[in-house]
Amino acid sequence: MARDWLVQARPDQLPPCRDGDWTTWAVIGGRGCGKTRTGAEWIDALARGDPAFTRAPVGRLALVGETYADVRDVMVEGPSGLLAIPERGRRPTWSPSRRRLAWANGAVALAFSAEEPDALRGPQFGAAWCDELAKWRHPEAAWDMLQFGLRLGIAPRSLVTTTPRPIPLLRRLIADPRTVTSRARTADNAEHLAPAFLEAVVARYAGTRLGRQELDGELIADRADALWSRAVLEAGRLAAPPGALGRIVVAVDPPAGSGARSDACGIVAAGRIGARAYVLADASLPRATPEAWAGTALALYHRLAADALVVEVNQGGEMAAAVLRQCDPAVPVTPVRATRGKYLRAEPVSLLYAQGRVHHVGTFPALEDEMCDLGPDGLSGGGSPDRLDALVWALTALLLDGDGAPRIRRL
Fold first, then answer.
1. 38 in helix, strand or coil?
2. How many CB atoms lie within 10 A of CB 243?
């Protein structure tokens, strides 16, 4: 049982259906999630002709890494590489000088560097394993040359194992209908990782852009015309405010309706010290009832000992303010009304970030995704930026006048 990969593997480590209509299997995951072991087991199974993976042995295979050293040290000789997986019969023979791995049945895998795309001209293969494609220096050229060589057998296929980066090739592959994508997080493979790594690295980077990419395997890209960039958010991130907060507000952007098709309710808290603001919490709720979001907003208000609840009263918001007052009459509710579109309201707030006057205390992935995706035409995927709306109201109440002018003129 310990040698049977079909038993040991997680679902995301097993390939799509052997007879399916796919050409590329993309395994996108965080550091240490088991991508290399997945690639090694797939190549070994194809070479040996394991019927769970292939109808017949694949006699010619390609191993492509960023450099030849990466192929040798990670894909072949590494702790999760082809020479380290459990023996199932005779182990393949590795010839470093020939950059060649040979199985007893005659199947051969050749090693290639993505830095030398022209080396892929001429050879032909029935399958290929491409490791860490997102960090190749010449991804387009190397991938193109490989595709011309994938011409043996009935259905030549590629496996891409990589921690994601938003390069055009990877985005295009994931969007291709002939690609099957599997995803894994570092935490999914925790039992095989050093506890000290999980405690130190995960605790430090969890929720940040780098952590979401390198640990959770998320493909995160900035929108070119967005009001915020992730670099600006990361530069202003803090573990805690630098002192006692002078004023704290909880802002609520209530949904226009209720039920399964209603928008989310944005609930964001922020505080101020002098001329700077500190975002403290994002407690937004998807499709919540008035009782649910009012209870959440009031609980956050009391937990932070806030000074006011700021509530947008457009599109039924007067009812929202009334609900809050009814739930807790002692809480001061400040109604605000939108007179401009979401993008125009957000512009002066984005300038505060550019000036270094707003800091996020901790990480708020869903909120930050909306911030870095809001362009002149709204969110790229449609929908309403409810979390962002609540953030804008909170920071406007703390640092801006109603017309968007700075409330505090000098730092």
1. helix
2. 9
Phi, psi at 133, each rounded to 5° = -60, -30
Domains by residue range for the chain, with CATH: 5-192 (3.40.50.300), 230-399 (3.30.420.240)
Write the secondary structure of 209-276 as one string of H (helix), E (strand) and C (coil): HHHHHHCCCCCCCCCCCCCCCHHHHHHCEECCCCCCCCEEEEEEECCCCCCCCCCCEEEEEEEEECCE
Smallest CA-to-CA distance from 356 within 174, 206, 231 is with: 231
Residue 94, both tokens: 């590795």
Q: Where are the beta strands (DSSP E) in 16-102?
A: 24-29, 60-65, 93-95, 100-102
pTM exceeding 0.70: no
| pLDDT (mean) for 243-251 | 95
pLDDT digits (tens, 9 = 90+) for 190-229: 888 898 888 888 778 888 878 888 888 888 777 788 899 9
Q: In this structure, are residues 16 and 22 in contact, taking their beta carbons and an 8 Å threshold?
A: yes
| Tokens 């911030």, located at residue | 371
111 sits in which H/E element: strand 108-113
Contact 107, 47 (CB under 8 A): yes
Distance CA 239, CA 389 (A): 24
- For 139-192, strand residue ranges (E) read 157-162, 179-184
